[in-house]
Protein backbone atom coordinates (compact mmCIF):
# COMPACT_ATOMS: atom_id res chain seq x y z
CA UNK A 1 0.00 0.00 0.00
CA UNK A 2 2.77 2.41 1.01
CA UNK A 3 6.45 1.86 0.23
CA UNK A 4 9.32 4.13 1.18
CA UNK A 5 12.85 3.36 0.01
CA UNK A 6 15.79 5.48 1.10
CA UNK A 7 13.39 8.37 1.67
CA UNK A 8 14.98 11.67 2.67
CA UNK A 9 13.72 15.13 3.37
CA UNK A 10 16.08 17.97 4.18
CA UNK A 11 14.58 21.38 4.92
CA UNK A 12 16.79 24.33 3.99
CA UNK A 13 16.45 26.88 6.79
CA UNK A 14 18.20 30.13 7.70
CA UNK A 15 20.14 28.17 10.31
CA UNK A 16 21.29 25.62 7.75
CA UNK A 17 19.86 22.28 6.57
CA UNK A 18 17.53 20.30 8.86
CA UNK A 19 17.55 16.56 8.12
CA UNK A 20 13.95 15.81 9.00
CA UNK A 21 14.03 12.34 7.40
CA UNK A 22 16.96 10.15 6.36
CA UNK A 23 17.20 6.59 4.96
CA UNK A 24 13.56 5.78 5.61
CA UNK A 25 12.76 2.25 4.38
CA UNK A 26 9.27 1.06 5.20
CA UNK A 27 6.59 -1.18 3.71
CA UNK A 28 3.02 -0.77 4.88
CA UNK A 29 0.60 -3.45 3.72
CA UNK A 30 -3.05 -2.78 2.95
CA UNK A 31 -5.17 -2.95 6.08
CA UNK A 32 -2.32 -2.47 8.55
CA UNK A 33 -2.48 -0.18 11.56
CA UNK A 34 0.94 1.43 11.84
CA UNK A 35 1.97 3.75 14.66
CA UNK A 36 4.91 6.13 14.56
CA UNK A 37 6.48 6.90 17.89
CA UNK A 38 9.60 8.86 18.81
CA UNK A 39 10.83 12.00 20.53
CA UNK A 40 9.84 15.45 19.37
CA UNK A 41 11.46 16.41 16.08
CA UNK A 42 12.22 12.88 14.82
CA UNK A 43 10.17 13.42 11.68
CA UNK A 44 6.89 11.62 12.45
CA UNK A 45 4.67 14.42 11.15
CA UNK A 46 6.99 15.05 8.22
CA UNK A 47 6.75 11.40 7.15
CA UNK A 48 2.95 11.44 7.39
CA UNK A 49 2.92 14.65 5.36
CA UNK A 50 5.13 13.06 2.69
CA UNK A 51 2.69 10.14 2.37
CA UNK A 52 -0.16 12.64 1.96
CA UNK A 53 1.86 14.62 -0.62
CA UNK A 54 1.83 17.68 1.65
CA UNK A 55 5.65 17.66 1.62
CA UNK A 56 8.00 16.71 -1.21
CA UNK A 57 10.89 14.40 -0.27
CA UNK A 58 14.34 15.55 -1.34
CA UNK A 59 15.60 12.01 -1.97
CA UNK A 60 14.65 8.35 -2.24
CA UNK A 61 11.41 6.86 -3.45
CA UNK A 62 7.87 6.79 -2.12
CA UNK A 63 4.97 4.97 -3.68
CA UNK A 64 1.38 4.83 -2.55
CA UNK A 65 -0.94 2.23 -4.09
CA UNK A 66 1.68 1.78 -6.80
CA UNK A 67 1.72 5.46 -7.79
CA UNK A 68 3.34 8.66 -6.63
CA UNK A 69 2.04 10.25 -3.43
CA UNK A 70 0.78 13.18 -5.50
CA UNK A 71 -1.13 10.91 -7.90
CA UNK A 72 -2.62 9.02 -4.93
CA UNK A 73 -3.70 12.34 -3.40
CA UNK A 74 -5.44 13.30 -6.62
CA UNK A 75 -7.26 9.97 -6.49
CA UNK A 76 -8.47 10.91 -2.99
CA UNK A 77 -6.60 8.09 -1.31
CA UNK A 78 -6.12 9.89 2.02
CA UNK A 79 -8.15 11.15 4.90
CA UNK A 80 -6.10 13.24 7.35
CA UNK A 81 -6.91 13.81 11.02
CA UNK A 82 -4.97 16.47 12.94
CA UNK A 83 -4.30 16.90 16.65
CA UNK A 84 -6.89 19.66 16.91
CA UNK A 85 -10.30 18.73 15.52
CA UNK A 86 -10.22 21.89 13.36
CA UNK A 87 -13.98 22.12 12.86
CA UNK A 88 -15.44 25.38 11.55
CA UNK A 89 -17.44 26.87 14.45
CA UNK A 90 -20.04 28.46 12.18
CA UNK A 91 -20.88 25.17 10.49
CA UNK A 92 -22.90 22.39 12.07
CA UNK A 93 -21.24 19.00 12.60
CA UNK A 94 -22.97 17.66 9.47
CA UNK A 95 -21.86 20.70 7.46
CA UNK A 96 -18.28 20.26 8.67
CA UNK A 97 -18.24 16.59 7.71
CA UNK A 98 -19.85 17.49 4.36
CA UNK A 99 -17.23 20.11 3.47
CA UNK A 100 -14.74 17.86 1.62
CA UNK A 101 -17.65 16.32 -0.30
CA UNK A 102 -18.83 19.79 -1.38
CA UNK A 103 -15.31 20.67 -2.48
CA UNK A 104 -15.02 17.40 -4.40
CA UNK A 105 -18.34 18.02 -6.13
CA UNK A 106 -20.38 15.08 -4.80
CA UNK A 107 -24.11 15.32 -5.57
CA UNK A 108 -26.32 16.69 -2.83
CA UNK A 109 -28.04 13.32 -2.31
CA UNK A 110 -24.69 11.53 -2.06
CA UNK A 111 -23.45 14.16 0.43
CA UNK A 112 -26.46 13.61 2.70
CA UNK A 113 -26.09 9.82 2.58
CA UNK A 114 -22.34 9.80 3.23
CA UNK A 115 -22.58 12.27 6.12
CA UNK A 116 -25.25 10.11 7.72
CA UNK A 117 -23.17 6.94 7.22
CA UNK A 118 -19.91 8.30 8.65
CA UNK A 119 -21.58 10.02 11.60
CA UNK A 120 -23.08 6.67 12.50
CA UNK A 121 -19.69 4.97 12.01
CA UNK A 122 -18.19 7.23 14.71
CA UNK A 123 -21.28 6.96 16.95
CA UNK A 124 -22.46 10.52 16.39
CA UNK A 125 -25.91 9.79 14.96
CA UNK A 126 -28.27 12.57 15.89
CA UNK A 127 -25.50 15.15 16.43
CA UNK A 128 -25.34 16.44 12.84
CA UNK A 129 -27.39 19.55 13.63
CA UNK A 130 -25.26 20.57 16.62
CA UNK A 131 -22.44 23.08 16.40
CA UNK A 132 -18.88 22.06 17.39
CA UNK A 133 -18.99 24.04 20.66
CA UNK A 134 -22.00 22.01 21.75
CA UNK A 135 -19.91 18.81 21.71
CA UNK A 136 -17.21 17.55 24.09
CA UNK A 137 -13.57 17.44 22.95
CA UNK A 138 -13.79 13.69 22.33
CA UNK A 139 -16.96 14.08 20.26
CA UNK A 140 -15.36 16.87 18.23
CA UNK A 141 -12.41 14.62 17.49
CA UNK A 142 -14.82 11.86 16.41
CA UNK A 143 -16.46 14.39 14.07
CA UNK A 144 -13.07 15.19 12.57
CA UNK A 145 -12.48 11.46 12.02
CA UNK A 146 -15.91 11.28 10.33
CA UNK A 147 -14.87 14.16 8.06
CA UNK A 148 -11.68 12.29 7.10
CA UNK A 149 -13.74 9.14 6.37
CA UNK A 150 -16.46 10.91 4.38
CA UNK A 151 -14.97 10.38 0.91
CA UNK A 152 -14.01 6.78 1.69
CA UNK A 153 -10.25 7.09 1.28
CA UNK A 154 -8.34 3.81 1.65
CA UNK A 155 -5.72 5.40 3.88
CA UNK A 156 -6.38 7.25 7.10
CA UNK A 157 -3.46 9.37 8.37
CA UNK A 158 -3.81 10.53 11.97
CA UNK A 159 -1.34 12.93 13.58
CA UNK A 160 -1.67 12.67 17.37
CA UNK A 161 -5.45 12.85 17.11
CA UNK A 162 -6.09 12.14 20.79
CA UNK A 163 -3.07 13.90 22.32
CA UNK A 164 -5.11 16.73 23.82
CA UNK A 165 -7.75 14.51 25.45
CA UNK A 166 -7.85 13.15 28.96
CA UNK A 167 -6.90 9.52 29.49
CA UNK A 168 -10.41 8.13 29.97
CA UNK A 169 -11.75 9.74 26.80
CA UNK A 170 -8.62 8.68 24.98
CA UNK A 171 -9.07 5.04 26.06
CA UNK A 172 -12.62 5.08 24.79
CA UNK A 173 -11.65 6.63 21.46
CA UNK A 174 -8.77 4.15 21.07
CA UNK A 175 -11.22 1.30 21.57
CA UNK A 176 -13.70 2.83 19.11
CA UNK A 177 -10.97 3.49 16.56
CA UNK A 178 -9.95 -0.18 16.55
CA UNK A 179 -13.57 -1.22 16.01
CA UNK A 180 -13.88 1.27 13.19
CA UNK A 181 -10.66 0.00 11.64
CA UNK A 182 -11.92 -3.58 11.86
CA UNK A 183 -15.23 -2.61 10.22
CA UNK A 184 -13.72 -0.55 7.41
CA UNK A 185 -10.44 -2.41 6.72
CA UNK A 186 -8.62 0.88 6.14
CA UNK A 187 -4.87 1.28 6.25
CA UNK A 188 -4.03 3.59 9.15
CA UNK A 189 -0.88 5.63 9.86
CA UNK A 190 -1.01 7.02 13.40
CA UNK A 191 1.44 9.37 15.15
CA UNK A 192 1.60 9.24 18.93
CA UNK A 193 3.86 10.01 21.88
CA UNK A 194 2.18 7.36 24.03
CA UNK A 195 3.71 3.89 24.28
CA UNK A 196 0.47 2.23 25.57
CA UNK A 197 -1.54 3.87 22.80
CA UNK A 198 0.90 2.69 20.11
CA UNK A 199 0.98 -0.87 21.48
CA UNK A 200 -2.77 -1.10 22.03
CA UNK A 201 -3.67 0.09 18.53
CA UNK A 202 -1.03 -1.19 16.16
CA UNK A 203 -0.17 -4.16 14.05
CA UNK A 204 3.21 -2.52 13.50
CA UNK A 205 5.07 0.05 15.59
CA UNK A 206 7.71 2.22 13.97
CA UNK A 207 10.17 3.59 16.54
CA UNK A 208 11.91 6.71 15.24
CA UNK A 209 14.96 8.60 16.42
CA UNK A 210 15.95 12.23 15.84
CA UNK A 211 18.79 14.21 14.23
CA UNK A 212 18.55 13.03 11.54
CA UNK A 213 15.02 11.67 11.70
CA UNK A 214 15.14 7.96 10.94
CA UNK A 215 13.61 4.63 11.72
CA UNK A 216 15.32 2.97 14.64
CA UNK A 217 13.21 -0.19 14.77
CA UNK A 218 10.03 -1.66 13.31
CA UNK A 219 8.15 -3.92 15.73
CA UNK A 220 5.51 -6.32 14.41
CA UNK A 221 2.93 -6.74 17.14
CA UNK A 222 2.19 -10.29 18.32
CA UNK A 223 -1.16 -9.13 19.75
CA UNK A 224 -4.31 -10.39 17.99
CA UNK A 225 -5.42 -8.31 15.02
CA UNK A 226 -8.67 -6.38 15.08
CA UNK A 227 -10.70 -5.03 17.97
CA UNK A 228 -8.85 -5.61 21.26
CA UNK A 229 -10.30 -5.30 24.74
CA UNK A 230 -8.75 -2.50 26.80
CA UNK A 231 -7.65 -4.97 29.47
CA UNK A 232 -5.28 -6.54 26.96
CA UNK A 233 -2.97 -3.83 28.30
CA UNK A 234 -2.50 -5.93 31.45
CA UNK A 235 -1.42 -9.00 29.49
CA UNK A 236 2.14 -10.29 29.47
CA UNK A 237 2.35 -10.03 25.65
CA UNK A 238 1.31 -6.35 25.78
CA UNK A 239 3.81 -5.50 28.50
CA UNK A 240 6.59 -7.20 26.56
CA UNK A 241 5.89 -5.17 23.42
CA UNK A 242 5.64 -1.96 25.49
CA UNK A 243 8.99 -2.81 27.05
CA UNK A 244 10.54 -3.30 23.61
CA UNK A 245 9.21 0.03 22.40
CA UNK A 246 10.53 1.78 25.51
CA UNK A 247 13.96 0.20 25.07
CA UNK A 248 13.95 1.20 21.40
CA UNK A 249 13.08 4.79 22.28
CA UNK A 250 15.83 4.91 24.87
CA UNK A 251 18.45 3.41 22.55
CA UNK A 252 17.26 5.48 19.59
CA UNK A 253 17.70 8.66 21.56
CA UNK A 254 21.40 7.96 21.84
CA UNK A 255 21.58 7.05 18.14
CA UNK A 256 23.42 9.94 16.51
CA UNK A 257 25.38 10.03 13.28
N1 LIG B 1 8.56 23.39 7.14
C1 LIG B 1 9.66 23.16 7.86
N2 LIG B 1 10.77 23.94 7.70
C2 LIG B 1 11.90 23.68 8.39
N3 LIG B 1 12.04 22.68 9.28
C3 LIG B 1 10.99 21.90 9.50
C4 LIG B 1 9.73 22.08 8.80
N4 LIG B 1 8.86 21.13 9.22
C5 LIG B 1 9.52 20.38 10.12
N5 LIG B 1 10.79 20.84 10.29
C6 LIG B 1 11.82 20.24 11.16
O1 LIG B 1 11.95 18.88 10.82
C7 LIG B 1 12.15 18.08 11.98
C8 LIG B 1 11.06 17.02 12.08
O2 LIG B 1 9.83 17.68 12.40
P1 LIG B 1 8.46 16.89 12.63
O3 LIG B 1 7.41 17.90 12.91
O4 LIG B 1 8.23 15.95 11.50
O5 LIG B 1 8.79 16.06 13.95
P2 LIG B 1 7.81 15.22 14.87
O6 LIG B 1 8.51 13.94 15.16
O7 LIG B 1 6.46 15.13 14.25
O8 LIG B 1 7.76 16.12 16.18
P3 LIG B 1 6.59 16.34 17.28
O9 LIG B 1 6.51 15.05 18.02
O10 LIG B 1 7.13 17.45 18.12
O11 LIG B 1 5.35 16.69 16.53
C9 LIG B 1 12.18 19.05 13.16
O12 LIG B 1 13.53 19.35 13.45
C10 LIG B 1 11.44 20.26 12.64
O13 LIG B 1 11.90 21.44 13.27
Automatic annotation (TrEMBL):
Q: State the superkingdom.
A: Bacteria
| Matching CDD domains | ABC_NrtD_SsuB_transporters (cd03293)
SMART domains annotated for this entry?
Answer: AAA
Instruction: Drop me one GO molecular function for this one.
Output: ATP hydrolysis activity
PROSITE patterns cross-referenced by the UniProt entry: ABC_TRANSPORTER_1, ABC_TRANSPORTER_2
Start and end residues of each ABC transporter domain:
2-235
Q: Which UniProt keywords apply?
A: ATP-binding, Nucleotide-binding, Transport
SUPFAM superfamilies registered for this protein in UniProt: P-loop containing nucleoside triphosphate hydrolases
The family classification in the record reads: Belongs to the ABC transporter superfamily.
User: What is the protein named?
Assistant: Sulfonate ABC transporter ATP-binding protein
Protein's organism = Thioclava dalianensis
Classification lineage:
Bacteria, Pseudomonadati, Pseudomonadota, Alphaproteobacteria, Rhodobacterales
Amino acid sequence: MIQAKGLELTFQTNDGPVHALKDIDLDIEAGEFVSFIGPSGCGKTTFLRCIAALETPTGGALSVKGMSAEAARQKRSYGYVFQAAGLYPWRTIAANVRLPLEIMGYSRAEQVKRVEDVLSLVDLEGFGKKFPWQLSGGMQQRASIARALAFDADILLMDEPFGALDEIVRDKLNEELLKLWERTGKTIGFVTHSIPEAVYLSTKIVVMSPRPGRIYEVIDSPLPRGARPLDIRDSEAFLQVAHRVREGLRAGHAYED
